Amino acid sequence: MQVNRRSFVTKGAIAGAAATTLAAPAIVKAQSTITWKMTSAYVKGSPFYMDGPGSATDLARRIEAMSNGRLRIQVFGAGELVPAFEGFDAVRAGTVEMNHANSYFWTGKTFAAQYFTAVPFGMNFQGINGWLYDGGGIDLWNEVYAPFGMIAMPCGNTGVQMSGWFKKEINTVADLKGLKMRIPGLAGKVYSNLGVDVKVLPGGEIFPALERGVIDAAEFVGPFQDRRLGLHKAAKFYYTTGWHESATVSELLINRAAWQKLPRDLQAIVENAAAACNVISEAWCQRANSDAMEDLVKNHKVIAKPLPDAVIKALRAETDKVLAESIAKDPLTKKVHDSYFAFKSKYDRWSEISEEAYHVTVRG
Ligand code: CA
Questions:
Q1: Are 90 and 29 in contact (CB under 8 A)?
Q2: pLDDT in tens for each of the 364 residues of the chain?
Q3: Any alpha helices (H) in 194-330, and if so which ranges?
Q4: 114 C-alpha vs ligand 1 centroid, how far in Å?
Q5: Strands 180-182, 150-157: parallel, antiparallel or unpaired by DSSP?
Q6: From the CA of 361, how far away is ligand 1's center (Å)?
Q7: If you measure from the C-alpha of residue 221 to the centroid of ligand 1, how many angstroms do you get, rounded to a whole number?
Q8: Spacing, Cα 144 to ligand 1 middle (Å)
Q9: Domain 164-246+288-331 in the same topology as domain 30-158+248-282
Q10: Angle formed by the axes of helices 137-145 and 331-353, to 10°?
Q11: How far does the centroid of ligand 1 lie from the alpha carbon of residue 220, in Å?
Q12: Can you spell out the DSSP letters for 156-204?
């Protein structure tokens, strides 16, 4: 029902309270509320993912505020409505309209999903956004999910993660042999090829396992999140810049049929709120990580340094092999891989004389 605001205001002003009471339901009807459910792979209260600037709850708050309450998103942490890693199936079935997580959890459904979260030796925050927003990345993401009736968009980013915590110093590739390490995904496969005994543990189990010596090393996220788990109390060597997760993207996964039913202005609000969270969450990580890193080194005697060059070289060689095997198995993965790395090689050449050169020049 169309409401002529001008005539309502005029009549209301003349007739007083009675007209206001009568007219109010018409406005409520015109501004009908759509309520969507959004699940997450992370438990309620998780910093960055569920709470804080650019998180899932912040995304919901922004959508509701921008739409003046026309689109409400009910946010459910892992385990509240569905278990952590069942968001993909819930959105696919339409049980919920959206899920907030990382696409690399879905590599068992479609391997190409890996590229929309992080690829070892991949692009940084600026580069990956260039590819996603302006280099065809989001279109490919939607192509990968088309058979499942879903679309996706970036809605958060951790920035570069850390290589992780080791109880013993790593000086050579041979030091990796037999090491029991928590590291999921493709990077785990790469370490495994170099003789690491790879363990996959959820976040909450990392600290007790590292402390008790069930594992000798672990990667999680970065200084803020790692300190929160207490990993610095169980291992002293903190290997810095994360070759395995250069800019880990959070994914907003949406049921395509629900999306198509959404009025165009509400679609634009969701897209813009997700883009805002993508930037704001990364900004939060930069601030939180620089504070936490200083604290870890100054107050907790953590030894922070990069992995030796020879180790990085070996990890890179194994990564190339693992990626080559994956693209040989699946044409869609190859299509996404080729797009990602074509963009990366151009971006690397540009970045070398722009962003990277800037840091080197300024540092002197
Ligand atoms: Ca990680």
A1: no
A2: 344 444 434 443 444 444 444 555 555 455 689 999 999 999 999 999 999 999 999 999 999 999 999 999 999 999 999 998 999 999 999 999 999 999 999 999 999 999 999 999 999 999 999 999 999 999 999 999 999 999 999 999 999 999 999 999 999 999 999 999 999 889 999 999 999 999 988 788 999 999 999 999 999 999 999 999 999 999 999 999 999 999 999 999 999 999 999 999 999 999 999 999 999 999 999 999 999 999 999 999 999 999 999 999 999 999 999 999 999 999 999 999 999 999 999 999 999 999 999 999 998 6
A3: 203-212, 223-229, 256-261, 264-299, 309-329
A4: 13
A5: unpaired
A6: 30
A7: 4
A8: 23
A9: yes
A10: 160
A11: 4
A12: EE--S-EEEEESS---SGGGGTT-EEE--HHHHHHHHHTT-EEE---HH
Between the CA of 61 and the centroid of ligand 1 the distance, in Å, is 27
CATH 3.40.50.1820 is held by the domain 164-246+288-331: no
Cβ contact 224:292 at 8 Å: yes
Residues by chain with Cβ below 5 Å of ion ligand 1: 161, 245
> What's the token pair of residue 175?
């030091």
Residue 263 Cα to ligand 1 middle (Å): 36
Class of domain 30-158+248-282: alpha beta
Report CA(246)–ligand 1 centroid distance (Å).
Answer: 10
Upper half-sphere CA count for residue 219 (Cβ side, 13 Å):
20
Cβ-in-10-Å burial (0-12, 13-18, 19+) of 106 comes to buried
* Cα 93 from Cα 299, distance rounded (Å): 49
| Distance of CA 250 from the midpoint of ligand 1 (Å) | 12
User: Ligand 1 centroid to 334 CA: how many Å?
Assistant: 24
Sequence ranges of the domains in the chain: 30-158+248-282, 164-246+288-331
Q: Quick one: which of 247, 279, 309, 216 has its CA closest to 120? A: 247
| Close Cβ partners of 2 (under 8 Å, ≥ 6 residues apart) | 30
CA–centroid distance, residue 219 to ligand 1 (Å): 6
Strand order in the sheet with 150-157: 71-76, 34-40, 98-101, 249-255, 150-157
Rounded distance from Cα 245 to ligand 1 centre (Å): 6
- What is the distance between the alpha carbons of residues 297 and 173, in angstroms, rounded to a whole number? 25
